[in-house]
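chain below, 487 aa
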Amino acid sequence: MSIRFAGIDIGSRTVELVVLNEAGNIVDKLQTDTGFDPMKAAGKLLNGTRFDRIMATGYGRNLFELSFDTPTVTEIKAHARGALALFPGAPAVLDIGGQDSKAIALSAGGKVVKFEMNDRCAAGTGKFMEVMAGALGYSIEEFGRQALSAEQDITISSMCTVFAESEVTSLIAKGQNRNQIALGLHSSVVRRVAAMINRVAPRGDIVFTGGVAKNPCMQKLLAEKSGRKILLPAEPQLTGAFGAALLALEHVALQRHPLTENVNDTIIPTEQTMKVEKALTRLISVLPLKDKQEACGREVKDLHQKVLRSFVDQGRILTKDEMARHVGSIDEAVNTLQENDMVVFSENGEPIGAYPFTMEEREHKIHVNGHQVNAMCALDALAVSPMFDMDTHISSKCRVTGAPVSIRQAGQTIKNPEEAADIRFGIVWGAASSCSCCANSLCMEMMFLKDGEVAKQWLAEDQDNREIFTLQQAVEFGSRFFVPLMS
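prediction:
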């Protein structure tokens, strides 16, 4: 019996499953609504479906990984692989799913060279289209057809889902034509996503994927707005699952023939790399420490590095008087460091912390160079060893259960893998907006979780705002964020 390879795309609105034979041909395909329990929906598709290997992608892939112990791949990589198979040589992919939209630039060989993703706002996503269709009294299937029948559109000024829905309600109350309103809504979405795809991949045909790609009005307007040919898969909503299935097949092929070149060379970054890359970009957008450090000038940059090193050399932060010995004007230096959220000061003006360290008591203790110091958060604790090229021992606890956490590091290497292998790192991204100072907001929501099962339960409580990483992913994440500060 031949081996079958499955790809499952767990989206915020629907779950798709595609099964391939060893030749890469589709032998089975299924779809269901995600509902309130993504894992139950996924299990429903898997039940009774024959496959031997599976790769997961989509919004719920991390939870699926924990529930079913399977490998995962990012949506970017999955859609790129699916698009490459369906339209070889196409340079651009636009995916509009339930909760995000993605623009991807591909090389001639199908390698991802650049991408942009809108996942912070419902504008330009399937959710936005669904809400607007409901506000106009259309089913999602009717929405695009009715919009196409309008001879002119009515401009919608807001792209915020809440405000746009209110604006639509107001227009209906004024007796405006529903189809013209629908066309205006489609036009506003197309302007947004066309601008994104033109920034990322400004030339060539566009492969249009995701559930929204089935909308005939979106297809027509996107072609007109971009001035480019739109390539539409027969079932655009299956592209991600199809790509994941192909990657599962190619992963096995690579294991069988490890010396074969170019088995998977059209696909770039591993899941770990892409996950870390995305998280790093997101954290830098909230706290661009390195950019701020460089903008401060040489004198303040040198002072900042001396402040950081004082924690590992002396086990404490430099006092304000000690800092004054290294700069011409301590008041100007303090103002610069404080305004840029690079050093945290107490109410009486004394320095008490500088990412990744703090003089305040925290749950994350680091034993380094004969001293015990406090890290502001779990990510900070993991960054200290690679930052200073010193062995560290982190003593912390699981935020959920209170169970002790012990991690011994030498740079990016975990020295006690038997003890620490199952530890996870968790972050609540939504906390970043609660306060201008990350030390008192986002840092408080970066934590250790004792194992995969605890992490799974924690993630399930709020998948929209929470994300989990393996310990090795977190070490790479922390290292790439903090090590440049000492260069």
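Residues 107 and 482 are 31 Å apart (CA to CA). Residues 256-270 have pLDDT under 50 and may be disordered.
thats it, cya
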